[in-house]
């Protein structure tokens, strides 16, 4: 009987694996089409200050597939990166994002920043900086360009650091501000943030989850905030889910707080309705 079970186990395992591989393949094949058929959407999540006033937003992509339903970026971005579609996809998102921001500015919206996630592979793609420069010039006045923030993750630090430094400084030179996303989960030290000339750091949600009842996390978070603020870096707290978390963190007067406590990422229409007066 144990044998039979074991065999079933194997069969089940193989089936689950096959489904996973199949789904990955399907996603891989459909991504191009999704781009062509405009099934990729940009959503916006508000960033609030300690007084719960809107200071900015983060663009988060969504794939609304007629067959698969809504697919989250944690699933399709890694696939897009491994196949290289991320270049085309990233350019599309960047274009859409800057265009939308330009529309808001022209209607008098006064948010301080507009953040876009950029993957490592995109960053290293030849001609990326030129492309960004073209789009910045196409859509934004010089005075508004510093409001564009590129969120990069600590995984850039696993790459050739000379090359990373060069690309990031080129982006800074055309007016882009830089944010270190998911800070604390990976390789970075505060020292790197200075070498890379980063403007902002986003403290990862994992440190916020247990902020209320973990002394270690409290020390960790408040220390990071203090050092970052002393270096003149903006601090954004990610993954604020409860009033209690917000109340405890608001006293540190971080540049922004972001999370489901305020709002989940919203479609453009919803975001405009709830947060902007156009
Ligand atoms: P991220 O940049 O760290 O974005 C934060 C993620 O946490 C988002 O997930 C957001 O919806 C979610 N989140 C925000 N507040 C809360 C909260 O209070 N509780 C919980 N449980 N989650 C919260 P999302 O949209 O699924 O994106 C996942 C990741 O995919 C992003 O992490 C980012 O690394 C990547 N990503 C998203 N859009 C893009 C894109 O256009 N380009 C690139 N390269 N990456 C993207
Ligand atoms: Mg981000
Ligand atoms: Mg993050
Ligand atoms: Mg993340």
Overall 3D shape: globular
Mean pLDDT, rounded to whole units? 92
How many strands, what sense, and barrel or not for the largest sheet? Answer: 10 strands, mixed
Proportion of residues in helical segments: 40-55%
Question: End-to-end span in angstroms?
Answer: 68 Å
What is the count of DSSP helices, taking H or I runs of 4+ residues?
11
Q: What pattern of helices and strands is seen along the backbone?
A: HEEEHHEHHEHEHEHHEHEEH
- Rg (CA only): 20 Å
Broad structural category: alpha/beta
State which percent range the strand residues make up: 15-25%
List the uncertain runs: 1-5
Number of E-type strands: 10
Bound molecule kinds, no repeats:
ligand C2E, magnesium ion
Written description of the protein model:
Helix 1 packs across helix 2 and helix 3 packs parallel to helix 5. The N terminus is likely disordered. The protein has eleven helices and ten strands. About 50% of the residues lie in helices and about 20% in strands. It is globular and about 50 Å long. Strands 1, 2, 3, 4, 5, 6, 7, 8, 9 and 10 form a ten-stranded mixed sheet that branches. The protein starts with a helix and ends with a helix. The protein is of the alpha/beta class and about 280 residues long. The structure holds ligand C2E and magnesium ion (MG) (3 copies). The site of one magnesium ion has 4 residues, from loops.
């Amino acid at each position: 009987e144990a044998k039979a079970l074991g065999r079933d186990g194997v069969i089940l395992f193989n089936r689950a694996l096959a489904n996973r591989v199949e789904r990955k393949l399907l996603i891989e094949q459909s991504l191009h089409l999704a781009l062509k058929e405009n099934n990729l959407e940009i959503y916006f999540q508000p960033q609030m200050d300690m007084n719960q006033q809107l200071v900015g937003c983060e663009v988060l992509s969504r794939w609304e597939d007629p067959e698969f339903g809504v697919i989250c970026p944690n699933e399709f971005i890694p696939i897009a990166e491994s196949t290289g579609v991320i270049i085309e996809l990233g350019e599309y998102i960047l274009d859409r994002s800057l265009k939308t921001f330009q529309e808001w500015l022209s209607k008098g919206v006064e948010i301080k920043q507009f953040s876009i996630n950029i993957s490592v592979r995109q960053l290293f793609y030849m001609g990326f900086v030129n492309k960004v420069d073209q789009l910045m010039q196409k859509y934004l006045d010089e005075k508004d360009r510093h409001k564009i923030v590129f969120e990069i993750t600590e995984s850039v630090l696993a790459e050739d650091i000379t090359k990373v430094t060069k690309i990031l400084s080129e982006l800074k030179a055309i007016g882009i501000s830089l944010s270190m996303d998911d800070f604390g989960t990976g390789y970075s030290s505060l020292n790197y943030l200075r070498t890379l000339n980063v403007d902002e750091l986003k403290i990862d949600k994992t440190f916020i989850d247990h902020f209320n009842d973990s002394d270690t996390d409290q020390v960790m978070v408040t220390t990071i905030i203090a050092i970052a603020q002393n270096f003149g870096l903006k601090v954004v707290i990610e993954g604020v889910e409860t009033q209690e978390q917000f109340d405890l963190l608001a006293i540190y007067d971080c540049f922004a707080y972001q999370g489901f406590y305020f709002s989940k990422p919203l479609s453009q229409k919803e975001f405009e309705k709830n947060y902007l007066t156009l």
